[in-house]
Amino acid sequence: MKKSAKAKSKTRSRKSTTGFKPTKLKLLIPVPSDIAIAQAGKLKPILQVAQEAGLQERDLELYGPYKAKVHLDVLQRLAKRPNGKYIDVTAITPTPLGEGKTTTTCGLSQALGAHLGKRVFTCIRQPSQGPTFGIKGGAAGGGYSQIIPMEDFNLHLTGDIHAITAANNLMAAAIDARMLHERTHTDDEKFARLMTRNGEFTDAQRARMAKLGIKGKTLADLSLEDKRRLFRLDIDPKSITWQRVVDINDRHLRRIQIGLGDEEQGHDRITGYDITVASEIMAILALTTSLADMRARLGRMVFATDTRGAALTAEDLGIAGALTVLMKDAIMPNLMQTLEGTPAFVHAGPFANIAHGQSSILADQIALKLVGKEGYVVTESGFGADIGMEKFVDIKCRYSGLTPDAAVLVVTIRALKMHGGGPKVVAGRTLDKVYTEENLELLTKGAANMARHIQNAKKFGIPVVVAVNSFKYDTPAEIALVQKLAVEAGAEGAYNCTLWMHGGKGAIDLAKAVVAAASKPKHFKFLYPLDIPIKQKIETIAKEIYGAAGVDYSPEAEAKVELYTRLGFDKLPICMAKTHLSFTDKPDIKGAPSGFTLPIRDIRASIGAGFLYPLVGTMRTMPGLSTRPAYMDIDLDLKTGKIKGLF
Amino acid sequence: MKKSAKAKSKTRSRKSTTGFKPTKLKLLIPVPSDIAIAQAGKLKPILQVAQEAGLQERDLELYGPYKAKVHLDVLQRLAKRPNGKYIDVTAITPTPLGEGKTTTTCGLSQALGAHLGKRVFTCIRQPSQGPTFGIKGGAAGGGYSQIIPMEDFNLHLTGDIHAITAANNLMAAAIDARMLHERTHTDDEKFARLMTRNGEFTDAQRARMAKLGIKGKTLADLSLEDKRRLFRLDIDPKSITWQRVVDINDRHLRRIQIGLGDEEQGHDRITGYDITVASEIMAILALTTSLADMRARLGRMVFATDTRGAALTAEDLGIAGALTVLMKDAIMPNLMQTLEGTPAFVHAGPFANIAHGQSSILADQIALKLVGKEGYVVTESGFGADIGMEKFVDIKCRYSGLTPDAAVLVVTIRALKMHGGGPKVVAGRTLDKVYTEENLELLTKGAANMARHIQNAKKFGIPVVVAVNSFKYDTPAEIALVQKLAVEAGAEGAYNCTLWMHGGKGAIDLAKAVVAAASKPKHFKFLYPLDIPIKQKIETIAKEIYGAAGVDYSPEAEAKVELYTRLGFDKLPICMAKTHLSFTDKPDIKGAPSGFTLPIRDIRASIGAGFLYPLVGTMRTMPGLSTRPAYMDIDLDLKTGKIKGLF
Fold it and tell me: Per-residue pLDDT for A17 more than 50?
């Protein structure tokens, strides 16, 4: 730490070349709660943050004084500017407590921007409100490495998730209403008339005509059979994959029966709710590259097959335009700031198992232009590197065209000891003493997990810097051992970080190493090409990244391979829905196992988002509330207007 | 019209005394679609609108360039300023097409502000997104009398309705989770420990202790029996009145069975969804007068009774603080503008049957201070005057302490002819020719409906000005007849208005008459005092306002009268849930019927909002989607970024 502190005093006084003024931290010991630090944080007006980042007032839609949305046409304006360096923060296989990826992402940015005088942007995910009111634990980083205002970050922000909820559920209502109307109106001729306005077709109807090979300018040009094909979707109720969503931990909605009202009699069915961030629309928000691309992706979303087995899309339903209208503001990235005043985009937050778990492509693209050639964009990928980084590369980078310059692998001594055979780590329970006392043996054994992740990153051609997110009970010998083993495994280096306790000052060595690693020549490559068969893609990930000997498919999965190949969805990348707590499908198997067989229970498709997701085990897409949920501590201080009890 | 046009040219050039610059309209004939007019409308930056209205930059939270939330502390700053005149726009018993209340509200404001040089504020409701994507038809006014940007108005606006959805559904999830946990944890001692953090009580737990007469500082001070009473709510599942909500027309959610998942087995129950604007939290948003008041009202919301028959509240559930946090931004009124650049608050939009159907008290209070002594606040009450105005007076004004200075009763020749016996008016069908040709006989007969509403308003001591919202096929003789009959019934006058076609210019005579009426001495009174029995309040409304001879109570209603009296809820005002299409409970009975018996099917309670609502017939709280819903026409023009097909 002494070294870092010195480095800092040298750099802090250096005048930034970008007009950027760092926000000075007043570090307290003991470190106060996250919300206390966040509320004591000095906020620059977001207009100043924007201007320092190279944005103009007309590029912004302000949402109060400390948040703004950024118009996408910034991308056109800066099209010719070279991109900055692109840094992905990932982690080893984590404990259930998490290893501090977001804290590292924020703290590293603070180090680069506020201490090394680099142009920098942080790009991270917007969290779901479910955990905010369910489990105590924020997603804005922690300690002195946070995004502020953390209350806005963890609550409505600018309403993007609410827009997704609205769009997702409008589509769900439309599906059930359409089935009811198709069954109720048995006269094909009359139904066709009802579905047009004065016999004119909508754009969506014309799109469906093109797909079905039906020609005509108005309804009168169509045969009865064509009218039937055009207007009756003949949705197979059993094939519906579209669920309703709510951004709340409401476990009683996991499986429900709808349509029990007197006026819907005979139109009941079993369905369920997911939490909003599991919606395909969230994955689309994260992967889209323009308004036109989002409109097209929303149109391509498949919600069911018809009774003849053909895929039915949002476009067939005639709802893709309305969904785009609901999402037109959400597509703009949200500008916020870190505790040390560096700029941050908080945008999109899809699930990291059934989806790819990354913040938005658009935020990264804009940020890379804004920081320019000499600058750095620090982003984060969900879960451990076996899932997060692999999807970052093979899904996100594939759709964005961007390539990373370096990866930061976050490790904790605690997690490595767990991988070495330490007792189970459980949230809310006191840590076993092997975690709070020096134990080089467990650490050495557990470092195999870190080594596998480092080697995996190198398969993508990405240089890896290890960030040791250290705790007060980690010993110098333990940290030195991790540093040695990391370098032996192929990392550029490993650095002790105290970002939680010291903010950017606690990550100066890491930041310097990242700068060095990112300046190396690029040898980036995808893990697999898109034009190989579905099974071959799955097997490549399983063997190359997880260390599996082979893959076992259930009959359902085999059937889906066949179905998706027949429907032409086999050219999509693969998004493995696997536990993040192990390289295998079993959360309890730690370390770096090999020789196992990875079971594929089923395969699902997010055609609009653009990936197939094999289910490795059961994925929960709707959390529950505990006996004593976090909402019990949350209230508004009526005197100050400040939120209390948030974390 | 000629007279109005002249009056306008005189006043338009007059320099406003307030620094207000009207936005000039370019009136086109034929009148374009609402969205075409709205998108062609010149928007002032909202900061300018705010400054012209007397607000400072620090009073605002900007939401993009054309919307802003206004901080409530404006009320403290302006506390000593006298209020402006308070004008309520209401209507006769409408046809299903609506008679143009919002158009009149906007156009009258435009006339007062842009043509007569008065300080003015429009205060109206935020519409639900359900109808926006369901039935074609906006809620932002129409023609040249609208609130803009109309797309924002009809879509997310600043997220208030989304916040209500989130808060309402968090509470719903909490109720079901609590029942599950109380049943699962059978050990009282252990359950009590789980419900505290280190044995400490939350504020909500202390509030429940006070209510139950339990004393103690920590868990250790309590007897097992006290722990049991404190932590076990013993919710009677059959008594739960709290529904989930979604701001979408999703009829399949009207009645559903939840908790069918494997892990919730045995915890299933039948419940349903309402549209979000039917949530009690929406009614609270509309009736609250401060952050502290909202916190208290949210805490008082009753969601069920326990197995011993005691009312259970959000405070008992420990969730009122979290709900307040979710609603802390929504409580601030949203500033927008009319097509002629006068300021408007768009804030809250509760149902007009099961709730009171009025925009927020806080918006009115702030607006009345901002316009000051010589100014005018024009607000609107939902449905016809028998419901809207009565609730405006007896519920909204009672909670706000504000009293209206004049009422504007909107009539159409079309609706009066319908009341006189004209054929049924159905949305989407061509009007019968009695409505498009002169027919003084039907009109004379139908004017009895208008007369009843005028006389009702006078029972509250409010002077009434009639606004004839005229159509191109209304004849001069018809308009003159309405004017004569209105004055005979006690109105201050009746004025031909062409607000749809001409904006404020089409309501100058009306505006002048409103100015004159509002300057008369006040004789305002409530219809009933709060301290009479529930039945007496219901009967007063039924007889005095509806013209009923008496009231008939179902056994359920009788039981509720008894229950609510026992629980101490009998001092609340009454919010009749009755059809707006008739003075009676039967939508088909037009005109001004009397001598009928009003049936009360049941009585429900919104204790947090602060009213009891007797059900006169069945009220639908979740609309459906038609065979061809509006969403089919809605899309984004990818070249211009503009919304098309909205209305």
Answer: no
Residues facing residue A496 across a β-bridge: A468
Tokens of residue A587, six digits: 């959360």
E strands along B354-463, which residues? 376-380, 406-411
Instruction: Look up residue A622 and give its DSSP letter.
Output: S
First CA to last CA distance, chain B: 28
Owner of token pair 């692998």 = A409
Handedness of CA B112, B114, B119, B123 (dihedral sign): positive
pLDDT at B139: 75
Mutate to test the interface with A, among B635, B640, B643, B644 (most CBs of A within 10 A): B635
Decide if A636 touches B, using CB distance below 8 A.
yes
User: Cβ contacts of residue A428 below 8 Å, gap of 6+?
Assistant: none
Note the pLDDT of residue B137: 59
List chain B residues with CB under 8 Å of A321.
Answer: 631, 634-636, 645
pLDDT grade, residue B368 (50/70/90)? very high
Q: CA-CA-CA-CA torsion for B339, B345, B351, B357, nearest 10 degrees?
A: -100
Nearest CB neighbour to B627, from listed A159, A194, A267: A194
* Best A636, A638, A639, A647 residue to mutate vs chain B (most B CBs within 10 Å): A636
A159 and B159 in contact (C-beta within 8 Å)? yes
Q: Does B279 touch chain A (CB under 8 A)?
A: no
Predicted pLDDT of residue B340? 98
| Contact list, B288 vs chain A (CB under 8 Å) | none
Smallest CA-to-CA distance from B86 within B331, B381, B289 is with B381
Residue B463 identity: P
A254 contacts on B by Cβ (under 8 Å): 260-261, 263-264
Distances (CA, A) of B292 to A446, B328, B329, B424: 53, 11, 14, 48
Instruction: Give the pLDDT band (50/70/90) at residue A18.
Output: low
Side chain identity, residue B630? A
Q: Which residues contact B284 (CB under 8 A, 6 or more apart)?
A: B294, B297, B298, B301, B608, B609
Provide long-range contacts, Cβ within 8 A and 24+ apart, for B474-479: B474/B413, B475/B438, B477/B438, B477/B440, B478/B413, B478/B438, B478/B439, B478/B440, B478/B443, B479/B413
Distance CA(A178)–CA(B627), nearest Å, equals 7
**pTM: predicted TM-score of the whole model, two decimal places:** 0.96
**Which one of A166, A260, A632 has the shortest CB-CB distance to B129?**
A166
Segment A29-53, tens digit of pLDDT: 999 999 999 999 999 999 999 999 9
CB-count burial class (<10 Å; 0-12, 13-18, 19+) for B471: middle
Model confidence pLDDT, tens digit, residues A165-188: 999 999 999 999 999 999 999 999
DSSP 8-state assignment for residue A630: G
Chain B, nearest residue to A639 by Cα: B292
Question: CB B174 to CB A625 under 8 A?
Answer: yes
Q: Which two tokens stand for residue B503?
A: 């904006």
Q: How far is CA B204 from the centre of its chain?
A: 30
At B587 the pLDDT is 95
CA distance B285 to B290: 10
Task: Give me the pLDDT at residue B1, please.
Answer: 35
Residue B81 binned pLDDT confidence (cut-offs 50, 70, 90): very high
By annotation, the residues of B acting in catalysis are 101, 103, 125, 136, 352, 383, 471, 500
Alpha carbon separation from A212 to A223, A595, B55 (Å, rounded): 13, 48, 58
Q: How far is A275 from chain B (nearest CA, A)?
A: 12
